[in-house]
Amino acid sequence: MKIKLFLLTSLLTTSLAIGQTRTEETQTPLKIKVYTPTGLSTSGTTKDNSYKWVVKTDLLGFVSGEFPVIAEYRFSKKLSAEASAGLTYAYIANNFTLSGENDDDYGETKAAMGTAFRAAIKYYPSSDYDAIEGWSFGIQVFSKTNNREYQTEEKSYTTTPSVLEGKKDIKTKTGISLVIGKQIFQDSNIAFESFIGIGFANVTRERFVNVDDYDSNGKYLGLAIKPLKTTETLPNIQLGLRIGFGN
């Protein structure tokens, strides 16, 4: 009886060992496929959906008589170029902001059309946006001409008003400034920008004045109308509130 029990136990142990070995030999690695949607790159790069250009105008420029059309274009990840061209309408007298106002200015003037041009390179440092969105720092160069036309109606104190026929009181500002601003876009692609520019400008003014006139012998002949040109360098501050459309 003991011999039979021993043989039965041996056979059962051998069968379990053989079954376990065969199971281990037939196991194969489990393969899992990962689905990648079409259009997405696995290299870690993403498509650039940031704004590349914007066309806008400056609402605060209207206050000073400047009506610009401004275009900005992103040419690298953090840099953009901006250009502006517009008309001016000098409804403010040209001697309003000049430090050396001359009381000898002749006659009355009225607003006339002029031109304004600006160009800037802007840097956008924010890591949350690509240019042209967020805070920016830039260098701007500009040239602006304000014209006021002389009124030549006959007056009792004028001797030869016709000498000013078609003449203008011209003030031209050319300069450079540091521009700091912030530009944001709405979902409708509407852009808003506020900024301040601080720099210097050469201000040239060409006008006509009343001067004392003498002959070659030093005899006083009375007042005469003469042209006068002056140039001075002044601090320049520009404030802007712009609105436009971009993509």
CATH architecture: Beta Barrel
Uncertain runs are 33-46, 156-160
Tell me the domain tally: 1
Q: What is the strand arrangement across the widest sheet?
A: 1-2-3-4-5-6-7-8
- State the end-to-end CA separation: 96 Å
Helix content: 10-25%
**What fraction strand?**
over 45%
Question: What coarse outline follows from CA principal-axis ratios?
Answer: elongated
Helix count from the secondary structure assignment: 1
* CATH fold type: Porin
Order of helices and strands: HEEEEEEEE
**Roughly how many Å is the radius of gyration?**
40 Å
Tally of strands = 8
Decide which structural class fits the backbone.
mainly beta
Supply the CATH class. Mainly Beta
Describe the protein:
- Keywords: Signal.
- This is Outer membrane protein beta-barrel domain-containing protein.
- Residues 1-19 form the signal peptide.
- This protein is mainly beta.
- The protein has a single domain (50-246), classed as Porin.
- The protein has one helix spanning 2-26; strands spanning 53-58, 66-74, 79-89, 109-123, 134-150, 168-185, 190-214, 220-246.
- An eight-stranded antiparallel beta barrel has the order 1-2-3-4-5-6-7-8.
- It is elongated and about 80 Å long.
- The chain starts with a helix and ends with a strand.
- Residues 33-46 and 156-160 have low confidence and may be disordered.
